[in-house]
């Protein structure tokens, strides 16, 4: 009888591949309509071997979200800790968020539509990841208000405006179309920053700052799935 796979690098690579296949399958035919046997056939594993990698079908929803939120939360913390103006950090965060939306459309579609299938620890894990990201956005918006760059408003309301504009992108975006993540980030931030009350003379400047940041820091990519390697 062959030995079961170990928990080395090969195990994690295979597990992530299963998560990606599951996201595509759930997005195509629905989480509730997809049986564990359907998933096993898609990844080429018997039920027992599949559970060895994923734990349970319910846990897959958490894993699918973590495939997005894990790298995004890491990049968000790194951007938040930069010694840059909050306006620029919000612009960089916008592009980082849109980059992962473009790349992981299936994952985002699944957890946006199927997270209500969870309960208990699984639901708590999923909601805590979302809450952590929202708090980071709120902190940056509040910092911009304290500096007088944005007009005063409830930080929660400002955060919801930022999230509503970005998070619904998955419903219509075409990753192969003309609009790229950097392009949408420029347009979204121009709309948001003017609405939040930033002086007009700052708006062209933040795009110049964003371009300079990316040019001067090639080791700090905005892509959440790439590694930051500060000089």
User: So how many helices?
Assistant: 10
Q: Count the beta strands.
A: 0
Order of helices and strands: HHHHHHHHHH
How far apart the termini lie comes to 50 Å
Structural class: mainly alpha
Question: Could you tell me the strand content as a percent range?
Answer: under 5%
- Describe the sheet with the most strands: none
How does this model look, in words?
This protein is mainly alpha-helical. Helices cover 69% and strands 0% of the residues. It is built from 10 helices and no strands. Helix 4 packs antiparallel against helix 5 (86-103), helix 4 packs across helix 6 (105-114) and helix 4 (57-80) runs parallel beside helix 7. The chain starts with 8 loop residues before the first helix and ends in a 15-residue tail after the last helix.
Write the layout of secondary structure elements.
Layout: H1 9-29, H2 36-43, H3 47-54, H4 57-80, H5 86-103, H6 105-114, H7 120-146, H8 155-167, H9 181-196, H10 202-216
Helix pairs in contact: 1-4, 1-6, 4-5, 4-6, 4-7, 5-7, 5-9, 5-10, 7-8
């Amino acid at each position: 009888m062959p030995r079961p796979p170990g928990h080395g690098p090969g195990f994690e690579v295979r597990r992530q591949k299963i998560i990606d296949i599951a996201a595509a399958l759930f997005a195509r035919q629905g989480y509730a309509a997809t049986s564990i046997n359907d998933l096993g056939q898609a990844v080429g594993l018997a039920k027992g071997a599949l559970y060895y990698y994923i734990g349970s079908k319910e846990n897959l929803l958490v894993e699918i979200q973590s495939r997005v939120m894990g790298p995004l939360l890491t990049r968000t913390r790194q951007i938040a800790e930069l010694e840059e103006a909050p306006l620029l950090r919000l612009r960089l965060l916008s592009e980082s968020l849109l980059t992962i939306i473009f790349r992981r459309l299936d994952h985002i579609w699944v957890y946006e539509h199927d997270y209500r299938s969870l309960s208990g620890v699984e639901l708590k894990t999923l909601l805590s990841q979302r809450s952590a990201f929202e708090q980071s956005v709120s902190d940056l918006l509040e910092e911009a208000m304290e500096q007088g760059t944005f007009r005063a408003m409830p930080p929660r309301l400002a955060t919801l405006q930022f999230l509503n504009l970005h998070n619904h992108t998955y419903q219509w975006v075409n990753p192969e179309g003309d609009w790229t993540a950097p392009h949408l980030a420029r347009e979204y931030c121009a709309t948001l920053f003017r609405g939040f009350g930033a002086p007009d003379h700052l708006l062209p400047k933040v795009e110049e700052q964003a371009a300079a940041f990316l040019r001067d820091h090639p080791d700090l990519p905005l892509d959440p799935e790439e590694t930051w390697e500060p000089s």
